[in-house]
Structures are given as C-alpha cells and as structure tokens.
Amino acid sequence: MVLAEDGVLLRDGLTALLTRFGHEVVAAVGDAPALLAAVAVHTPDVVVTDVRMPPGFQDEGLHAAVRLRSERPGLPVLVLSQYVQRAYAAELLDSGDGTGVGYLLKDRVGQVEEFVAALHEVAAGGTVVDPEVVRQLLRRRRDPLARLTPREREVLALVAEGRSNGAIARALVVSEAAVGKHMGSILTKLDLPPADDTHRRVLAVLAYLRG
Amino acid sequence: MDPRYPRDVWQALTRPRYLLSPWPWRAAAYLLTGAVLGAVLLVGLAAWVTVGGVLAIVLVGLPLLAATVLAGLPVAALERRRLGWIERKRAPGAHADPSKPGAHADPSKPGAHAAPSKPDAHARPLAPDAHARPLPPDPHARPFAPDRHLHPLGPDRHLRSPAPTPHIDPPAPGLRAWLSTRLREGATWREFGHALLTACLLWPAEALLLLVALVSPLAMIATPVLLATAGGGREVKVLKVWTVTGQPAAFAAAALGVLLLAAGAYALGLAAAARAALTRRLVAPPDGGTRARVAELTRSRARLVDAFEAERRRIERDLHDGAQQRLVALTMSLGLARLDAPPGGPLAEQLTRACEEAGAALAELRELIHGIHPQVLADYGLEAAVADAADRSPVPVDVGFVSPLPRLPQAVEAAAYFVVREALANVARHSGAGRARVEGEYGDGRLVLEVSDDGRGGADPGRGTGLTGLADRVSVLDGRLSVTSPTGGPTLLRVEIPCEPTPKDGPCVWSSPRTASSSATA
C-alpha cells in the first residue's frame, strides 16, 4: 500500500502499525504530488492519505484521492483527517462508484483493531464513513431523510459505517430479517431504484451524506 | 517656536524690522500672483461658460457648463500652494516650521537636522496622522507609521504644499468614482465659491492695492531720475497729476515716495494676511486634517482586523501541525501498546483508559480548532461553512441559498461565517426558538445573509459584546449588520457586505506564506 501523511511522527507510526498487521507499505510520502507519483510507480492495492498536506495545507490529499479514484477505478482509498466534514465525505464518495472508499477521523488509529478492520473493509471494496460524519448528519432534520424513522436512521448510519446486515443486526440486537426490512424501507423512502443491492446501499449512504 | 522667525505675515507685521525683512516682498508677490491668477481665471471662466452656453443648444454644452463647478479644484490646489509663501504654520496645533522655506534648519532644535524630510508636519510622508495631531516635542519620538505607502494622501503629494487638502480619496479608481466623490463634498462647492470670488472681486482689489501701495511710491521715488532723463532737467509729471520743476522738488517727491512705500509695505502685509485668512477658510478648512486622519484610521482598523484574522489562522495551523499531530501519534502508540499488553489484565485496562483520555483530548482540541477557524471555510467556502454551522446548532436550522455562492474574499467569508455562528449561538442561548433559518444571496456586488428564528424576540444588540464585535468586523468591510427583534419575536439578523467574487484558485489575501498558495485542484 501507499501511505501519504505529512506529519513524520504519524507517518512512521502508521507505517509501523500497518506493517505489524501484515501490510507492506511500499511508499510513505509527505505530500500530494509525491502520492500521485508513488501510486503511478507502485500500483498499490490500497492507498491511505491525509487530507491536509503540503504545499497548500488545505485539502490537497482529498483532491489527490479523488483524482486517483477517477484515474484508477476500483483503487481503494482510505482518507484520514483531523476533522470530518460532510462536504469532504460527499466529494470523496461521489468519486468513482462510491465503493472501496473510506473517510475516517485520524483519532480512529487509536482503536487499532477497528482501524485495521475499516482498512480491510475499504480494501475489499466496502464503504466506510466515520461515525462522526454520521453524527453530524443525524443532527440535521431535512428531507428526504426526515421521512426516515429514528430506527431506520440508525440502520442507515451503520450502513454508512460499512457494516453488513448481519453486523447491524448484532449491533441493534434485532434479527437480520428486521434489518433487511428496514433497509428496504429506507431505499424506498429515498426513492432509490431497484438494482444491485450493494450499489443501492452506497446510493443510500450518498443520499444520506448530501442531506 | 523660535521667536526670530515669524510664522506668518501677521506675526511679521509686528516685528520692528518688518520693512527690512523679505516679508513685504513676499506679501507683494502673493498679491501680485493672486491678481494675475484672478484675471486669468476670469477670462478662462468667461470663455468656458460662453462656449458651454453656445453649445448648450446642441446639448453638448450642458456637461461643459456643469463641469464649471470643478474649476474650483485646480484653483484651490494652487491657492493651498501659494499659502506657503506667506504662512509657515499650518493646521492649528501642528508644530511651527523652524526654518525659512527650504533653507537652514533651526539651530535651537538640533534634532531637526535628523528629520528625514522638510520639517513640515504636513509634508512628512512617514507620519500618516500628523495632519491632525501636534508633533511630540522630540523629533526623534515621532509616531511610526507601519508603511509609508499607506499614507492616506499618498506618499509625497503634499511634500511642498503647506495646507492639507480637504478632499478625500475616491474609494475606487476611475473618473466616475472621482466625480461622484468630489461632487458630494462640501469642499468642492466651497472651492468653486472661492474661484468665483477670486475671479470677480478679489483680483481687481489686489491689483488696485498693488498700484497704490507699490507702483505709485516707486514711481515717486524715481522722480529725480525721470526729471534728469525724460524731463530734460526742467519738469516732469509725478503720477501724471503733479508737475515737478527742479531737482529739490523732485527729491522731496522721492522722499515722500519712500515714506509711502513704507506705509504701503504695511498695507500690503495686512492685505496679504487678510487674503490668506479668507483663502484658508475656503480652501483649506481645519477639518481637512481630520478627514485625512479618519481615512487613515479606517485603513489601520482594516489592517488590524486582517492581522487579527491572520493570527487566528496561524494559531489554528500551529495547533494542527503540532499538538494535534502529537496527540494522534500518542493515541496510536497507546493503541499499539494495548495490543501488546496481556488481555484482560490491569495494564490493558489502564491503557484503554489512557487511550480514551487521549481521544477525548483530541476531540476537545478539534472543537477548539474548529472554533478558531474552520477548515471547511477555507476549503469549500461560506456556503459549506454555514451548512456546517447549522449542523452544529442545537436548534434545527434550515439553510437556503438562492443560488450557489461564489467564493468571496477570505475576510468577507470569515466575517459572514462568524456572524452566522454567533447569531445561531444566540438563537440557541436566548431566543427559545424551536427553529431557525439562514438565508443567503450574492448579487449586485454584495453578499446578504439573514438569520431568523421563531423565538421570543426582544434581543438587544447593544448588550453583550459578541454581536457588537462582529458588527465592527462587518463595518470594517464597509458592510452593515442590523438586528430587528421586537418583543414576542421573531428576531431577524441581517448582514450585508459589499464584495467581489475571488477568481477561482486566485491568490489568497493573507500574507502568510503558507496559506498564500492557491488551493490545489489536483
């Protein structure tokens, strides 16, 4: 994998962490142009990048991630950030088809197992959005999400975090069939066309993010 | 002030050596140029108005006639310059020029030699506020202006002009802005009045006085010479009225001429002083300095707000690059250590707690940084930042923008954002509202934002410093912030800021090198 992070301390720490979990970090770089170059050279299986990096210290990492995803469809990218923002998440998920993409607060690296699990999820083509983004969205009360019941919103939040129906059922202590029913209801309420289920789940999350 | 050098012609008149000083000649020169100026002006104005009147038939003349009002401007500029010939002291309270014009410095003030330019309070380009304030006694201790290019009147426009201009600089370049500024100024009309007065009344009086007080005595003094040359030694007419025959009478006439010349010198001095006082009242009123000072204060206030905003961004950056990065690294180390600790043991438990603490610290730090300067504002602009502020508000907020906002100057975006945030905080804190609404629009070169709620109203914008500070911030940008909040509600806060959209990926306004680069659209 290729890692882009401008803080030396964190870059080394992340490299150590990922190596420990059996991932090979082929390149660890400190800015967005170097990230693009490294991906071109190494063609990694997954990319992990910070949002705010030199030279502009704005959202170069995010733009690099979006560009990578449009240039190489299917390349899983996990974006880390010091703060989460719906706008960033939406831009990221809009790139490509919304699969194989993750957006997490940097804080999550402290919960090592969960972080690595999220990384695996992204690498396997899943979609992971930080619970903080979800929490920001839950504070909003706007259509069409207003049509969802609180329970359905809970389910959708967990979908956004990249969980399967089984995992959601376990988290909410309900049956998997109940989760399936909620999912169906959510998709209907969000006016999502019947299609491949994974794709519809992603679309639901996107609708969610756009609020 | 050094008593040896009179500061103006009034003072010079009281000196015993007045007749031997250059002052009478200065007064005469002042009146003579004034008379010539007035005569030329009369001819010029008459010609202009005639041409304008004739052309008025084909409408072209109307603007020409209207432009006559502006004739006062160059005349007044010239008059302010001429005031320097017979006055050395300028605005009330400003320090006196210790020297003759452009000559040696006052020996009683050794520091004056170190002055960077002419020691005239209005001429010094380095002190923007000297127009309205007496200088400190020590020339070395004069106030420091941060940037000489920010001098409100331009760095050297008045280097040799003793009287400050009462005009303000137009807010924008171009003829239109200049015209509308000038025509709305009282000074322009006063100066037009002065020009008319000069052309119609003052110059004949000046010419007459010069004839009586200067030319006639000189002619009398020349009587013996005239008698010897033109009169052939027999007879000559003095001033064409009085026939003189013989040298004794001629010398008597010359002696009388000398006496009259002396009296005339005083008359000239008095007339020049009166003329200067009148001119000063019309073309260089004392509030000219005040205007300049207000302009500079406005600018310095804007600089302060800019500096304040730049500082906020620097603090935000430092926290982001420093403490935040280290805390993330710390939580990661703790997380890794927890993996190594025997599961279920006391060490693992402690490490878990430490990890949670570090996580909480990170969350708090994140909120703090967001409060200082939200990154989303820099990255996505005002609309996204307002949506974000609405997301964070405990009271449900509807956000509606008539059309997508363009990116605006950072100072505008920041001021508008903080106004919205403060307004939403007030809604949550005081209004008891169940719902709030933020609406925004950009059009016709101005940004308008409205925050309304369905609360109980009765908000007093004067109470509390939050909105007052923000109103100041908005007014620095020439914007307006208004609050209407009748008892019983609803409360409506409205902010308007004139601004132009920034070009996409244009240069940032902040001078900080790290934020100066444009946002990459890789």
TrEMBL record, chain A:
Annotated ranges, domain Response regulatory: 1-121
Molecular function terms from GO: DNA binding
One Pfam family of this chain: GerE
SMART domains: HTH_LUXR (SM00421), REC (SM00448)
Sites bearing 4-aspartylphosphate, chain numbering: D50
Domain of life: Bacteria
UniProt cross-references to CDD domains, sorted A to Z: LuxR_C_like, REC_NarL-like
PROSITE patterns reported for this sequence: HTH_LUXR_2, RESPONSE_REGULATORY
Limits of the HTH luxR-type domain: 141-211
Keyword tags: DNA-binding, Phosphoprotein, Transcription, Transcription regulation
InterPro entries registered for this protein in UniProt: CheY-like_superfamily (IPR011006), NreC/VraR/RcsB-like_REC (IPR058245), Sig_transdc_resp-reg_receiver (IPR001789), Tscrpt_reg_LuxR_C (IPR000792), WalR-like (IPR039420)
Gene Ontology biological process terms in this record: phosphorelay signal transduction system; regulation of DNA-templated transcription
Coiled-coil intervals, chain numbering: none
Protein name per UniProt: LuxR family transcriptional regulator
Organism, as annotated: Streptomyces griseoruber
